[in-house]
Specification:
Helix content: 40-55%
Number of domains: 2
Order of helices and strands: EHHEHEHHEHEHEHHEEHHHEHEEEH
Bound molecules: ligand TLP
Strand order of the largest sheet: 2-8-7-6-5-3-4
Number of strands: 12
Shape: globular
Distance between the termini: 20 Å
Number of helices: 14
CATH superfamily of the largest domain: Type I PLP-dependent aspartate aminotransferase-like (Major domain)
CATH topology of the largest domain: Aspartate Aminotransferase, domain 2
CATH architecture of the largest domain: 3-Layer(aba) Sandwich
């Protein structure tokens, strides 16, 4: 019999706004943000800038737009950026790097999101008429494709030191940087010191319906506002959305620890099941990666779906489950039971 309970582990993007957010939306004081007079957007941007120790912030509709605007504002078409081959910016933004900033990518392999500083330095182009200009290094915190690992602060500091030597900009895709901060105890402003620009998402574990913020200094933001406009990302009474962000920054960060605990608990409950591989030690934030035989991830995804446990196959052998505010003990038990049940089926 198909289970009637649905436990949605597809992403932390599925989180819905809290009652407090909905109340804040209804009460929001708004203006026209493209004209620069939405007080609620301004308040959100100032709150974010203070939290990250930066000169200012800019509200954008999505994390992808935040990343692309940030890169476009700090590069010229034809430049080269150095980026991990598994970065979201490179893998999952629909080829935007080639269209928006129109830069080319020099991809490197990272170790759980940490780029090797020596490889970064070696990848920087000489100042030669034949070469594209290397102008920016992009990093990601937490690192999605290593199962939400936290990139060590020291590694980011090393990248910053190299960037300083060669006058490169550093952008951080900090979609889940609050997860990194909660897991590591490093304040987000410590991470942010190493970046010229940083995007973080309100619409993931922080539960907002829409939105991301880009932080940086005034000169960067002036250019970023122009790019956001030509991308069509200028919004009008966006204070209604920003109101949720203010609630999120006040009240939704500390609870990410619950998501990390739940992810760890799920890993412990399923790690002995045959034909799947997961080491609970690798689960340090809210993402659970499960390896299986090549070609089997989609089959498991469908079998789990039939049990009401929704998740994603991210590749032929990789299954991803993400914990968030709508996943509690009941959903963790549900998922664990579904894994046990499907392990007894002949799926091949
Ligand atoms: N990630 C989504 C999918 O696109 C894979 C998810 O469900 O995890 N950076 C990182 C590290 C992200 O994980 C995402 C979204 C983004 C940027 C883009 O954010 P949005 O979806 O707001 O454009």
């Amino acid at each position: 019999m198909v289970n009637s309970q649905i436990s949605d582990f597809r992403s932390d993007t599925v989180t819905k706004p809290t009652p407090e957010m909905l109340a804040a939306m209804a009460a929001a004081d708004v203006g026209d943000d493209v004209l620069g007079d939405d007080p609620t957007v301004k308040k959100l941007e100032e709150t974010a800038a203070a939290l990250f120790g930066k000169g200012g912030g800019m509200f954008v509709p999505s994390g992808s737009m935040g990343n692309q605007v940030s890169i476009a504002a700090q590069t010229r078409p034809g430049d080269e950026i150095i980026i991990d081959e598994n970065a979201h910016i490179f893998l999952y933004e629909a080829g935007a790097l080639a269209r928006v900033p129109a830069v080319q990518s020099r991809t490197l392999k990272s170790k759980n999101g940490a780029l090797d500083p020596a490889e970064v330095e070696a990848a920087i182009r000489p100042d030669d008429v034949h070469d594209p200009r290397t102008s920016l290094v992009a990093v990601e915190q937490t690192h999605l494709m290593s199962g939400g690992r936290v990139v060590p602060l020291e590694n980011l500091q090393q990248i910053r030191a190299i960037a300083n030597r060669y006058k490169l900009r550093v952008h951080c895709d900090g979609a889940r940087i609050f997860n990194a901060s909660i897991a590591s105890g490093v304040p987000v402003r410590e991470y942010a010191k190493n970046f010229d620009s940083l995007t973080f998402c309100l619409s993931k574990g922080l539960s907002c319906p829409v939105g991301s913020i880009v932080v940086g200094d005034a000169a960067f933001l002036k250019e970023a506002h122009r790019v956001r406009k030509w991308m069509g990302g200028g919004m009008r009474q966006s204070g209604y959305l920003a109101a949720c962000g203010i609630v999120a920054l006040r009240s939704m960060i500390d609870r990410l620890a619950d998501d990390h605990r739940n992810a760890g608990r799920l890993a412990e409950l399923i790690c002995e099941i045959p034909n799947i591989t997961i080491d609970p030690k690798d689960v340090t934030t809210n993402i659970v990666f499960i390896e299986t035989r090549a070609g089997r991830a989609k089959i498991l995804e469908a079998a789990l779906h039939a049990e009401g446990v929704w998740c994603f196959a991210l590749g032929p052998s990789l299954l991803r489950l993400v914990t968030h505010r709508h996943i509690g003990a009941r959903e963790i038990e549900h998922a664990a039971a579904a894994f046990v049940k499907i392990s007894k089926l002949n799926l091949d």
